[in-house]
Amino acid sequence: AGDNHRADQLLREMVNKVKQGMLDKSNLDQQFFNVVIDGWAKSDHPRASEKAESIFSSMNEIQMLPNVQCYTSLMQCVAKNGNSDAYNIIQKIFGMMLDQWKEGDAFAKPDAVVFNTMISGLSQSQHPKALDQAQLVIEKMQRMGVNPNTISYTTVMSAWSNRQRPDKTEECFQFLMKGYKGGDESLKPDHQTFNVRLLAWSRAGNPEMTLRTLEEWMAGSEAGWIDAKPSNRDFNAVLQAWTRSNRPNAAEQAEKRLEEMFQLADETQHTHKYDCRPSVHSFNSVISAYTKSRSPNAGERAFGLMQKLQNIGKENVNDGSIQPDFMTFSGILVALSHSDVKSDTSIATQERILALLRELSTKKAPFWRQVKNLSPLLGKLTSALDRYASSTKRNDVMVELNKVKRAASSATKNVKR
Is Repeat among the key words of this record (predicted)? Predict the structure, then answer.
């Protein structure tokens, strides 16, 4: 920030000297201004956008026309700094550049970087018409002879995904694919494009489209036209899609996909073809699906998954990615709490709950310090276990739960979250 302030101050002093006739204008060019504007664009200063706009305006004071780089940096700054009126400001900046170019200044001709910056800025805006306008920008690019590229479409796809509009994300993706299949190499989807599409459908709880995207990604990477293969997190997106689908068979389907991940990992372990061996996050997704299902056997199935995870963890003690974490324990406990306290297996279920709580209370500081938002998670766990008010082990459960809370508090009390 200090360098930005010094550069800003120095440039303003030079502008004033030009205005006063103390410095020849030839000592300044657009690059000086772009460096300062770009510096503010990369700054976290709360008034960065205001300062960048001020420097940009000072060019007019010495009759210097901005070039395309200056316009681009200013749009980036407005977009990054969360200006509440970014939607209108970015369009105004673009309009100024367009007018300057139409008046004969070739240095203000919009290029793909400008359009992509504008699309990115509009995509970050909360204005209700911003994303529709971003798609119109792509059409405007084509009319002006500036070809949209993969970045253009992927940026809009990501914005629609963040607005929970997977249909619009898919629509952009299909436009991109149509152009690429038509021979335009600049529209070749990359791994980021597929990742955005994958997450859009996963967040929407559509496992079929999530799986379709993953399979198309795998096929494209094997054919060599997609630059990177899907990772473990991308395979997990299918599990999460089932969890979010709220379908009656979601948990069973998620567990089936988990087994398929193991199978594929085993088949390709010597070639390291895919990084798809399930992690603790994979197991947690399936356990979460069982927790949400509230089916009579959900606790039993979830507990079985934890046992499998623990066995794998014991075989790979140095691999933290496959060790049960708090979300694993919490998910199992909540799933077990949904069991019928009056059933024939209720005593066994309560003993399992007690055993899990006792194990949890022995966990050391590193275990607890990796948990985000621990307090609300413990609150949810307490509410779930409190349903055992009518159970024979209710007091024992509450005693062990309090031990867990003390262990967590002791481990995290000196940690800033």
Answer: yes
The single-letter code of the amino acid at 186 is S
Query: How does DSSP assign 229-282, residue by residue?
Result: ---HHHHHHHHHHHHHH--TTHHHHHHHHHHHHHHHHHHTTTTT-------HHH
Could you write out the DSSP letters of every residue in 101-121? Answer: HHTT-GGG---HHHHHHHHHH
pTM score of the predicted model: 0.85
Contact 405, 378 (CB under 8 A): yes
What pLDDT does 390 receive? 56
Q: What is the mean pLDDT of residues 302-311?
A: 96
pLDDT score, position 401: 93
Select the more confidently predicted residue: 105 or 391: 105
| Of 305, 319, 310, 292, residue with least CA distance to 384 | 292
Please state, in angstroms and rounded to a whole number, the distance separating the CA atoms of residues 389 and 176.
Answer: 57
Q: 350 versus 167: which is more confidently predicted?
A: 167
Q: Using an 8 Å Cβ cutoff, are 326 and 367 in contact?
A: yes
Measured at the CA of 215, the angle between CA 174 and CA 169, to 5 degrees, comes to: 30
Closest CA to 31 of 62, 65, 70, 61: 70
| CA-to-CA separations, 142 to 108, 146, 147, in angstroms, rounded | 18, 6, 6
Structure tokens at 109: 């001709």
- Listed as own residue / partner, the contacts of 100-106 with beta carbons closer than 8 Å and 24 or more positions apart are 100/65, 100/66, 105/65
Domains held by the chain: number: 1
Which one-letter amino acid corresponds to residue 267? Answer: E
State the DSSP string of 302-329: HHHHHHHHHHHHHHTTT-GGGS--HHHH
Element containing residue 154 per DSSP (H, E): helix 150-162
Q: What span, in angstroms and rounded, lies between the C-alpha atoms of 6 and 9?
A: 5
* pLDDT at residue 268, rounded to an integer: 83
The pLDDT value recorded for residue 147 is: 87
Residue 97 structural domain: 1-146
Let me know: does 89 contact 52? Beta carbons within 8 Å: no
* Residue range 122-127: mean pLDDT, rounded: 82
Nearest to 49 by CA among 89, 97, 9: 89
CATH number of the domain to which 11 belongs = 1.25.40.10
Match 């899907």 to its residue by tokens. Answer: 230
Per the domain annotation, does 398 fall within a domain? no
Residue 412: enclosing H or E segment and its boundaries?
helix 394-412
